[in-house]
Amino acid sequence: MARLKEAGCESPGLCARLLVGQAAGMDKIQCIINAHCELSHEKACHLRMLVERCAKGEPLAYILGRKEFYEMEFIIKPGVLVPRPETELLVELSLGMIPAQEIAFADAGCGCGCIGLSLLGQRPRWQGFLLDASQQALSLTRKNARNMGLDAQIIAADIFHLPFSSASLDLIVSNPPYIAPAEIGQIMPGVLQYEPHEALFSGCDGLEHIRSLARQATQALCDGGTLLLEHGATQREAVCRILGENGFIDCMVYDDLAGLPRCVMARKKY
Fold this sequence. Notes:
Layout: H1 2-6, H2 12-24, H3 28-33, H4 41-55, H5 60-64, E1 66-69, E2 72-75, H6 88-97, E3 104-108, H7 114-122, E4 127-132, H8 135-148, E5 153-156, E6 169-174, H9 189-194, H10 208-220, E7 221-230, H11 236-245, E8 248-255, E9 261-268
Helix pairs in contact: 2-4, 6-7
């Protein structure tokens, strides 16, 4: 744990326990039961390698190969964005605001599938279309869907070309790229070094993907349909303006657990 503290890792104690479990091939309960057991030489060497990767800033989810999100465990690998706790707000809002009866929704830019599959896990009668331009992301989404026993339509498509006919969806939910190049200095070094930039940055002002989603959602959503987006903490006014210009009403902004504006929900005009 000293190496992790020295490197400035967040929650070094938790990281150390998870890395020990990974090296020893034990789950959380087994780690507690065997807390005083010594690792074999081979496993100790493996642990040192994992600790060094973590100390150098590699996201813990990549090292472990998994990430918990909305009480579910997702396979995660380098090349696909690591799910963030604040993104769980999209799931909570969807479940709280959208009727439980059968609806059709799209998770645009699904990554590992964390948003769309979390929704299907809670609403199995919903019809979910999970889209991403990355074949690596789609492969992970398929694996996660199989592991969870969930039925999702997984489609290769990017946010700029949504493959939906007019008024075919009740909900579009998305955590799109929304970082502007000028904000690069505010990104944690580990994120910048290891996570895919195409899932982070959006045009010259961080809003290119959101503009595209707003334009296309106007066509793809049924009258009264819902668009729910994650956005940057300083983008609230700009995002609401973009939605209004594209025919959306009742724009509501929701804060994350840190009290920062993080998600916007709006309805297509009737």
